Every structure is written in C-alpha cells, then in structure tokens.
Amino acid sequence: MTQTSQETRVPFSLRPKLVAGLGWATLISLLLLGVLVFAMTPQDANMGFNQKIMYIHVPSIWVAYLSFFVVFYCSIGYLWKRLESFDRVAKASAEIGVLFTAMCLLSGAIWGRPTWGTYWVWDARLTTTLILFLIYVGYVLLRSFAGAGEQQARLAAVLGIVGFLDIPLIHVSVQWWRTLHQPTSVFKVAEGGDPKPAMPVELLMPLLLGLVVITLMYVFLMLYRLRVEHWEQDLEARLAKH
User: For residue 114, what pLDDT band results from cuts at 50, 70 and 90?
Assistant: First the structure.
C-alpha cells in the first residue's frame, strides 16, 4: 500500500500537516502568553508576583472541565449509538483531563503555600477536585487494564458520566461549605443584575487570553492523541493479517 493511499484513510482533522501546524500555533501562543504574563502584566496589589500562577491554575481547571464534559457527552453518545468514534474521543479527552487536573492541583498547592501557609488543606473545593482527579485516574486505568471490547467501553462510559457529576459539586462547594478557597473571582453580578469583571482589566485580559491559548492546547492534544490511536489501530490491523 502506498503512502498516498494510507493517508486517504486518515480523517481530515488528523492529517499530519494539520496537526503539526496546530502544534506549532499552540507552542508559539504559549510562548507569547508567557511573555505577556511574566514581562508585561502588572503584579497584583495584594499577592504580588505569586498571583501570576493564576494564569496557569485557572486555565488548567477550565480545560479539565472541558475535557470531562467531552467525556460526559461522548459517553452518553456511545451508550446511545454504540459508535466507536464516541468511545475513542471520550478516552482521549479523559487522559487530557487527568493531565490538566493534575496541573490544577499542583499549581494550586504552589499558590497555597505563600497564601495559606501550607501546600494542602482539606478544603471543600480542593477535596472535591481531588476526588474528580481520582475518579478519572480510575477511568484511565480501566481503559488500560480492563481489556478491549464493548463491555470495557460500556463500563468506562458509565464511569465517565458519573464522574462528571462531581464538577457541579466543585463549583458550588465554596457556597455550600465554609472554605479557605476564594469564590469565583473572574466576574461578579453587579447590583443591577449584570455581570462585571471582579478584577482589574489589565489582569483580566491576560487571563481570558490564557483560557483561549490553553483551550487551543487542548484541541491540539486531542487531535494528536486521536492520531496516535489511529496509528495503533492501523498497526493492530496489519499484525492481524499476518
């Protein structure tokens, strides 16, 4: 089989040039974001330089939520339609979500040390986030060791759906329980009922830009992981013929 005929079997979104181009765009965007945050964005009046870890911490949990929502959606889709494409996307997104949840917990611990005087407290938001991390670590382990087949995919889909239910709990934890973790501080509701920024614009804009850049990183990692999955399936098909 020629290289050309092989590439025709690859979905357009997984073509090497497209994925590589997206990777370079992600890398350049991350570098520019780093320059903006660490060289051009002013320091917070209260927390000083330590506040800059917010530009890693907040986008990390945002992409983790996005990843697990994709798992949730695709898991429902798989149980309903039994399409293998739903299962592949859910598997890839869960792995990315675990990575970014770990980044969120690690950056939060680093931020907590100068702010709270300790790397970790059994705070409601931290604890529920840790539970989310452990649920999806279990999901990834299930996908790795439970063996291939429809039964494994169904079990993973159920776990992916149930695990997502922890995210609303994380969101409301700072309102339901007394907690050291500050409430959502990007936007707040004004007296007239309209949302308005809860931080200075010069701090908010780099944060929003960071959300965009880290989301772009998620898209790149997703397409790259799906391409690796495509390679693995192609290799298995070739070995099965011999």
Answer: confident
Give the containing element (helix H, strand E) for 148. none
Query: Which residues lie below 8 Å from residue 143, measured CB to CB, with a gap of 6+?
Result: 91, 94, 152, 156
pLDDT band at 30 (very low <50, low <70, confident <90, very high): very high
What's the angle, vertex CA 161, arms to CA 151 and CA 211, rounded to 5? 130
Task: Kindly provide the b/e burial profile for residues 120-138, where b requires at least 16 CB atoms within 10 angstroms of the residue's own CB.
Answer: eeebbbbbbbeebbebbee
* DSSP H/E element including 37: none
Cβ neighbours of residue 8 closer than 8 Å, sequence gap 6 or more: none
pLDDT at 7: 43
pLDDT category, 3, cuts 50, 70, 90? very low
Who's near 16: CB < 8 A, 6+ residues apart? 7, 227
pLDDT tens, 53-62? 888 989 999 9
β strands within the chain, DSSP E: 187-189, 195-197
Q: What angle do CA 74, 75, 81 make, to 5 degrees?
A: 80
What residue ranges do the domains of the chain occupy?
A: 14-42+52-240
Q: What residues contact 37, with CB distance under 8 A and at least 6 apart?
A: 52, 55, 206, 210
Question: How confident is the model over 203-230, as a mean pLDDT?
Answer: 91
DSSP state of 198: S
